[in-house]
């Protein structure tokens, strides 16, 4: 069971508004003109202690009328194949339309959980009108208003019952996924590592359709390599191959322990790369950044050190990340990339003894204590590492709610300074002592 929740439905029913509410950011452009959702639509949502990835399919449909219905139908088909849970959104103000009926017909045939969300139900009259949607035949029908948020909590409660956070079992092989935009060299890297042409490598962006799992066992290193479909740039939204490849990349990211994020040295870090980087960070995955095609860059204008500094500025605040300059085609430094990814895997597994942790961190807290809140002194007495599959620490104190964000960053920096967590997001929590 994967943890991808896809929001489907025809244009203009409020998918992007719900998406933004779920991920807690205004990431999508919202407008009353149908088909305006243009920005890439995936993000992370935490509800009832469970984390899952939400995909808003609205960003993947073109405007022209003839492809509209076909595109939405093919999107729903991909969502049925690739997502774990589907939210099917309709609009109470228009009633049931032909396209709603067609989508409902497709969704009734899947055995995946489908939630019908009747949107814009924000007064008593509309509540009565919304009852006609029970006729679409979905047991899980929820009335809500994605603008005001009413009803969205109940929908999320129901959705999270179908989300399972699976903690990886011990003694498993590390899972490493290579992600990045199309044509950045992911397949060339896979082939260079495996020494065989596993994928078709061409200069046409988006030729890799599927993610492929391969066991790598050479030079005393062993892991599972997940090669993914590319993530497309939004200027190249021509067809649903793009939506499909994004779903595949998110699926691979969900599965992996470590992400190798490949970027093209000639274009640098783009918005797309940042999206996937932030998603990896929110999902507590280890990250290694590979700058590919470094052999093609004019070295006079750009030294590796300057380039690395620019990338780290973009990635901040989480920029304790290894950055390697490679050429997949020339096979330059690609084995170093594997070694680095496996080191990051070790860092993600690292457990610090409580005594060592307290010795170092309490000294750091003594040097620079947490700022007082409204005249109340905050005292941190004790710290322990939580038994999670990624580094997470609990600091026990008298006023956990009043510790400021910048102090939390200070503690994270101290943890990074004294213990090696390079490439791995760290979670810091404050608990009542």
Features:
433 residues; alpha/beta; 6-stranded mixed beta sheet; 15 strands
Description:
- The protein is of the alpha/beta class.
- 34% of the residues lie in helices and 21% in strands.
- It contains twelve helices and 15 strands.
- It has helices spanning 15-23, 65-82, 98-108, 124-130, 152-160, 186-194, 241-255, 271-282, 304-315, 334-349, 354-367, 405-418; strands spanning 4-8, 42-47, 50-56, 85-91, 114-119, 141-143, 175-180, 212-218, 221-227, 258-264, 286-292, 323-325, 380-385, 392-397, 427-432.
- The strands form three sheets. The chain has a six-stranded mixed β-sheet, sandwiched between helices. A six-stranded mixed β-sheet has the order 8-9-7-10-11-12, sandwiched between helices. Strands 13-14-15 form a three-stranded mixed β-sheet.
- Strand 14, helix 12 (405-418) and strand 15 form a beta-alpha-beta unit.
- Helix 2 runs parallel beside helix 3 (98-108) and helix 11 (354-367) crosses helix 12 (405-418).
- The longest helix has 18 residues, at 65-82.
- The chain starts with a strand and ends with a strand.
Range of strand content: 15-25%
**Tally of extended strands?**
15
Shape summary: globular
Q: Stretches where pLDDT falls below 50 for ≥5 residues?
A: 26-40, 198-210, 229-238
- Gyration radius (Cα, Å) is 23 Å
- Tally of alpha and pi helices: 12
